[in-house]
Task: structure prediction
Amino acid sequence: MTDNGTGDYTIAISTDMGSANYSHPIGSSLGNGGSGLDTDIQTKAAGSLRFHTVRDDSTKTDCVHISVSILGDLA
Result:
């Protein structure tokens, strides 16, 4: 995972998926009991996934914890 800036992350998938049609549940936390975070997918490709973590007011924010699963068929 690469931290591209405030609330902006890219995950590089070492073995490409068969296509960009895969599932990607993402969980994030501020770490202090804060809630109201969501993820905004920016780009999705067979070999990467870029997303923003955002507050309820749509401002990007860094997270303390991020959990991502990539589910689908490999190429």
